[in-house]
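re the bet — no i am not wrong, look at it urself. input seq straight from the record:
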Amino acid sequence: MILTVTPNAAVDKTYRIEDFRLNRVNRPSSGTTVAGGKGVNLARVYRTLGGQAVVTGFLGGINGRIMTRALQAEGADDAFVHVRGESRICIAVIDPNNGSQTEVNESGPEIPPRAIRALKRRVESLLADGRFSLLTLNGSLPPAAPAELFADFIEIARRAGVRAVLDTSGDALREGAAARPWMVKPNRFELESLTGRALTSEADVLAGARTLLESGVCMVAVTLGEEGAYLITGRGAWRSRPPRIEFASAVASGDSFLAALLWAWERGGLAGDGDYGPEEEARALRLATGAGAANAAVIGAGFCSRESILAAAANSEVRSLQMPGDPG
């Protein structure tokens, strides 16, 4: 079972507009409105695959109430902390004719220190009951939230004996990675920011991931969008490529990838029984790659089906890699 923390949750609106143009009235041919935010999307796909997840973070205002009702309608286990500010709206405009995706994401509400303390107490209380094997820390931080917030949650998870997974960017990524979570999931650009150097080749990406492993992180997954992903652990490195799909939307594909990776990992030896090896790592990456592709084939954050995930995974390619500096 996993607990996801999304400090900057959102009402996600996705519109499909053929031949979208600036400076004119655009009318969508279809649209969806759902409870969103990276941890919410992750939990949705995790449940689709058969896992159990609880979602927490901050919700506020009218948009927060919309989110609460949407989570209830989905049957999600909601443990959000409510604040006075207004939760944000994130809008994605998909133009299938031109292959474009335009996003407008609000910043979110300012979070006062007392609400930060309340969320920390909420997470501590949830982790204390022993139900959770993983804590995931997802997305951006809202205004006024301290950059070290995710690092604080990583320490809370460590004290509870729960493994922490970090999926964020900017200062929150740097502070969080320094706290040595079990896993970090950057995209290529986020890994470049974290390592302070351009990653123009496969060897560069692997070297950047190795830097994180040497700092105390146990696993690094680097997503590359339609080009696939890398998975690097102390046991080896893997590269995946997804199957060709009819693209619909990239919203939440990274979250879907992470949900499937963690679901496969939790089912296959996360408890540390010694049975998890390179073959299981390859299968986990294959399933994660399939989930990312299946999500990109639908409009709506994390609304791909289990069947579509498994089908895309079956057609994904995974190959092992040699880490730079390892003997050939």
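see?? Confidence is low (pLDDT under 50) at residues 270-274. told u. also The longest helix spans residues 278-296. so pay up
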